[in-house]
Automatic annotation (TrEMBL):
Keyword terms, alphabetized: Iron, Metal-binding, Oxidoreductase, Signal
UniProt keyword Oxidoreductase present: yes
Protein name as it appears in the record: Cysteine dioxygenase
Molecular function, one GO term: oxidoreductase activity, acting on single donors with incorporation of molecular oxygen, incorporation of two atoms of oxygen
């Protein structure tokens, strides 16, 4: 089994890319076309002040109830000098017509904004960054993500859906049949927003007992055997078989809190993960699987190979399209 390889697979996101005045190029799949957003005007996502004006208006006024987080969030970004013009290749399109902006597009924009100053693959987020993305994700329904319970075909396999995948952030969905699991794994240096769309799952998570030390070699063997190069380490229990439901809202994993976790389906369930930065097997963000052992001197996480019972099936994303300008 490949270690978390499914998280690197492109699953046909269905973005519509639109050019400037010189011409427009459409690269929209059939399912994206069905949910495409029409508008006579668009705004430059990279233009000075555009992110603040558009996101404040769209999210605060139309998308998220009680958008009081935005003023403080933007002021903090400005104080840190994070709103100077920058050379971005992407723009969000159609944001001037607030009522037509998909929440999935908005989520994409907020992720882009939160990671624009990431350096050397390292990201530090403020609590307000965590909250604003949680607020947006919490508003998106299973239907808008294209995976209501009716899409479950009942087959005994874990389904994976790639919503969008960028260099600095990604969003994906997993559907787990009752009794199936995502094995104990980590998210080195990463933030993860998880939301159950429907059903129930049981979560066990752990924190490293001591600050993380370099534990990756400069060179790695093939992925299935990389766990043999990692040492066991002590952990503290963060969650012990905690049940998550859709009404519980968004749960956040940080680089230091709950970063080693396992999801096990109590009933058939579907959940979405927003991850930043995503796994990168060429750098230090490789996924490692673990076995948790209770010993006299505490709880230990022992790196293992990918469990052979962890098998996934990739499905096409058929939810609301992410509309961007290029």
């Amino acid at each position: 089994a490949m270690v978390w390889a499914v998280c690197l697979a492109m699953a046909g996101i269905g973005l519509r890319l639109q050019g400037g005045a010189a011409g427009r190029v459409a690269a929209t799949s059939a399912f994206a076309a069905a949910t495409s957003i029409s508008s006579a005007s668009s705004a430059s996502w990279a233009a000075p002040g555009c992110k603040r004006a558009i996101l404040t208006r769209v999210v605060g006024a139309n998308r998220l109830r009680g958008g009081s987080l935005f003023p403080d969030w933007f002021q903090r970004k400005e104080r840190l000098g994070k709103y100077s013009p920058y050379a971005s290749e992407r723009h969000l399109a159609h944001l001037e017509e607030n009522e037509k902006v998909s929440k999935v597009t908005l989520l994409f924009g907020l992720c882009d904004l939160a990671t624009e100053n990431m350096e050397d693959g390292r990201l530090e987020l403020h609590e307000s960054d965590l909250n604003i993305i949680s607020k947006c994700l919490n508003e998106i329904t299973p239907e808008e993500f294209g995976f209501p319970p009716s899409r479950d075909d009942g087959k005994p396999i874990i389904d994976y859906v790639d919503i969008f995948e960028e260099k600095n952030f990604t969003a994906c969905m997993f559907k787990l049949p009752a009794g199936y699991r995502l094995p104990m794994h980590d998210h080195p240096g990463m933030y993860v927003w998880s939301k159950v769309l429907w059903g129930e799952m049981e979560v066990s998570s752990y924190d490293r007992e001591s600050p993380q030390e370099p534990r990756r070699k400069k060179t790695f063997p093939s992925l299935p055997s990389q766990a043999l190069d990692l040492r066991p380490f002590k952990v503290n229990t963060k969650r012990d078989r905690e049940v998550w439901k859709s009404e519980d809202g968004v749960k956040i994993t940080t680089p230091t809190e709950g970063n080693i976790h396992e999801f096990r389906a109590v009933t058939n369930c579907c959940f979405v993960d927003v991850i930043m930065p995503p796994y990168d097997f060429t750098k230090e963000r490789r996924c490692t699987y673990y076995e948790i052992n209770e010993k006299e001197d505490g709880t230990w996480a022992r790196p293992i190979r990918c469990p052979p019972d962890y098998i996934t099936r990739s499905l096409k994303y058929i939810g609301d399209a992410v509309e961007i300008q290029s």
